[in-house]
Amino acid sequence: MISLANKPPRFLIKPSAVFAFVLLTFSQLYADLKEGKVVFEMYCASCHGPEGAGLIGPNLTDATVLHGSSHEEIVAVIQNGIPSKAMPAWNAVLQPQQIDDVALFVKSIMGKNLPTPVLTGESTVTPFPKGSVNRPLLMRTFMPTLDLDDDVFAYHHDSRETPKYTHKTAYFDPVKRDRPIDGIPGAITVNFGNQLSYCFDSTECRLLYTWSGGFIDMTNYWGAGSGNKRIKFGYIGELIGATGYLAKGKAPLAGKPQFKGYRKVNSIPEFNYTIGEVEFTLRIQPGESPGDAVCHYTSKNWKGKRQLEFSEANASQLSSDKGTFNKGILTLSAKEAKSFTITIKAQP
């Protein structure tokens, strides 16, 4: 019989190494949670509230959430969305790591049971939100497609009918169907008062349309005052005013778009995104006349002379302070593309 009492261990792990490993693990977890909170506040807070307690979307701080409470289920909902509930799919907007971080953050706030700030009968919100030239209002909400060309939505997936779902009984009806909503889930819309409103698509990373004379009537979605007058599946706001510009045809620059986020510079939203290997920032401000839009671009990794090919149908509305414009095609050198401005005149 062999005694193991005095036999040295095959592997020796120092307590200090274990402590270092645990510390590193918790440090990484904290970093992921922190990043998840940042991404949540940027992309999710407009519907779910900054603390996840619900706003126009459900309260995520309940002990259980509607479509599953495991990390994997939360990731799946963020990636694929819930079309019947107007929850957009974020897999074309967020990186896999960002989605994982957001799911981690959502998991961390479940069970806090924070009170929903807007309760039926207590809301005094106006269904007519509005900004100003000095303090524009940015909203992330579902926007109408305005019958834009299919080419404009090249990177949007085709939605399909889904089984009708009853959340109270967690039942999927095998016969009844919920139809897709004809709206833009990745829309970011900004209002400068009556002078200019615009809709930017964070999936396509392009300006879709502009209008002036008002902003959006959100009655169907938000209700009026006490929350009444809401319409079932009325998630899409109605434009107030006259359209000035409608994007047509394919994106001006070929390449897969990837939205990176936005920041505010002196209250003006500035979008950051890539088209292929080219990095862009875009800041849009009102022009001289109602509906005019002044689009300030900066770019990196623009090599040699390249072209931005706008639809010829939009050509008469566009001008640039750099490069040469010919029938909707803007040619820019690498130097010119570092910073340039395209002005859009509103269609009469």
UniProtKB/TrEMBL annotation:
Gene Ontology MF: a single term: heme binding
Pfam family, one: Cytochrome_CBB3
Residue intervals passing through the bilayer: none
Source organism, top-level taxon: Bacteria
Residues of the Cytochrome c domain: 31-110
Keyword Iron: yes
Keyword entries, A-Z: Heme, Iron, Metal-binding
Name by which UniProt lists this protein: C-type cytochrome
Lineage: Bacteria, Pseudomonadati, Verrucomicrobiota, Opitutia, Puniceicoccales
